[in-house]
Amino acid sequence: MKPTPTVEKAEIEAQIAVMRQIKLNNKEGAKALVETYGCQQNVNDSERLKGMLAEMGYTMTESRDEADIILMNTCAVRDNAEQRVFGNLGALKHLKEKKPELIIGICGCMPQQAAVAERIKAKYRHVDLIFGTHALYRFPSLLAEAIEHRSRIVDIDGEGRIAEGLPTLHDGGAKAFVSIMYGCNNFCSYCVVPYVRGRERSRSADDVLTEIRSLVDSGVKEVMLLGQNVNSYGNDRGETDAFARLLRQVNEIDGLERIRFMSSHPKDISDELIKTMAECPKICHQLHLPLQSGSDRVLKDMNRRYTSGRYLEIVERARELMPDLSLTTDIIVGFPSEERSDFEATLDVLRKARCDSIFSFIFSPREGTPAAKMESRATDEEKSAWFQEMLDVQNAISAELNAAYEGKIQEILVEGPSKHEPDMLMGRNYANKIVNFKGDNSLKDKLIKVKITKTQTWVLYGELVE
Ligand code: SAM
Ligand code: SF4
Questions:
Q1: Distance from Cα 45 to the centre of ligand 1, integer Å
Q2: Pairing state of beta strands 447-455 and 459-464?
């Protein structure tokens, strides 16, 4: 078993020294903007980038015009996310012309792909800093170079390593993301993640627990443990069922109220994990278990290494131990080898699994992945029609499952005013469902009881009970 690749303490200390130096030289009131695209892991990476920026004397802003540095932390999972970044990068050109001292950086999964980094270098000359996921911890020294030499700095080298001891700016109120592992070994045939995030590497349980304890000390009540496949946590260190053990330890942390995690790969979920979820009172009975397709032939072509039957078995077992289980999933429509009968198999599994909600995507070919070279059997029009058909089937299921909450009293962690209905507060129940209700903003970040009075496909409405 190879040791987990880790950044040496001395390298981290060197970065901390660079941060101090930048802070000394930084102008009064310097501002930074970090724009995040993609998944929760990227949100968590952005918290680390913001933590480093704060340590360098920057305060965060949401305004591009105000910022002295703009960082785009990007996603490469689908083409539309990449196109959005290219559009936004283009739009920054005139800002750089007006304000030449502005530093523009692009980081994360997009530039970790050599071809994309080349395109950025060639077409977006106003970008000062280009670095990939593996170089995240080197951001302070890259920024120092960019400031000092006023030249473009590119760093997409190296392998993914775990870097502990860097500052993080947690800005999620009573909820926090905690990455427990990085990378992915699964190589699903459609997915770019293993290429841009490297092989699986798990943080030590001690580091994870220390981070959670310190978050709880700062007011956090709910943690979401993150990994591309949390069920294989610890496998890179030769451990088995390490994730279930970690969960039991997290469950013991005083002051922590709720634990969630994502994503779980069906091929690696163990009975021990399901039992742990059922037995530990702080673990929410909420499981995100990506199905991707209900057709066994397509699942094989996707290299998912489970069948639809196995998926349904897992769901049945989880519901046996947790009758109130809330289930969510990911589905890809229009995988190259998918035909109408395969799509119908997906609908069939969705009708049987009765997920609370699904995250659905139309297949997006990703350069360098095996699926990108496969010929598509369905037309774009067919894929769009299937996508809509699937949403109709799922929306009916989601509305039915939500209706069952009517009259029930739910514990809600309040997040603040609702985005769409600002005169109401918004919070989430154990199932992560949005609950809107009338209440005073002083309830923010508190766990309170709400009686559900009305339900819709996406939202529950309620009244404060206590
Ligand atoms: N590791 C997670 C897992 O296996 O569930 C998923 C990570 S990925 C960032 C999130 C979702 O994006 C996947 O579950 C899949 O449904 C979708 N996805 C990934 N690659 C895709 C592609 N090339 N086209 C469309 N959707 C894709
Ligand atoms: Fe991508 Fe599959 Fe890894 Fe998830 S498990 S990140 S879908 S390769």
A1: 18
A2: antiparallel
Name the average pLDDT for the chain. Answer: 97
With CA atoms as reference, report the closest residue to 36 among 126, 98, 106: 106
Cα of 228 vs centre of ligand 1, distance in Å, is 10
Nearby residues of 34 by Cβ (< 8 Å), 6 or more positions away: 46, 49, 50, 53, 60, 71, 73
Q: Using CB atoms within 10 A of its CB, is residue 378 exposed (0-12), middle (13-18) or buried (19+)? A: buried
CB 184 less than 6 A from any atom of ligand 2: yes
How many angstroms separate the Cα of 56 from the Cα of each of 26, 32, 167, 172, 237?
8, 10, 11, 21, 35
pLDDT tens column, 397-455 = 999 999 999 999 999 999 999 999 999 999 999 999 999 999 999 999 999 999 999 99
The best mutation among 184, 292, 359 to test binding of ligand 2, ranked by most ligand atoms within 8 Å of the C-beta, falls on 184
Q: Pick the residue whose CA is nearest to atom 20 on ligand 1.
A: 191
Q: Which atom of ligand 1 is nearest to the CA of 191?
A: 20
In whole angstroms, give the CA distance from residue 466 to residue 456: 23
Does the beta carbon of 330 lie inside 6 Å of ligand 1?
yes
Q: What stretches of 49-98 adopt beta strand conformation (E)?
A: 59-60, 69-74
Ligand 2 neighbour 76 (Cβ under 6 A): no
The amino acid sitting at 233 is Y
Residue with tokens 């009968």: 341
Which atom in ligand 1 lies closest to the alpha carbon of residue 228?
1
| 2 pLDDT more than 90 | no
The pick from 187, 330, 357 for probing ligand 1's pocket by mutation, whose C-beta has the most ligand atoms within 8 angstroms, reads: 330
Residue 408 makes CB contacts below 8 A (sequence gap 6+) with 451, 452
**Is the pLDDT confidence value at 466 over 70?**
no
pTM, two decimal places: 0.97
Nearest to 448 by CA among 464, 426, 462: 464
Residues 161, 289, 309, CA angle at the centre, nearest 5°?
A: 125
Residue type, 9: K
Torsion region of 292: left, alpha or beta (phi above 0 gives left; psi -120 to 50 gives alpha): left
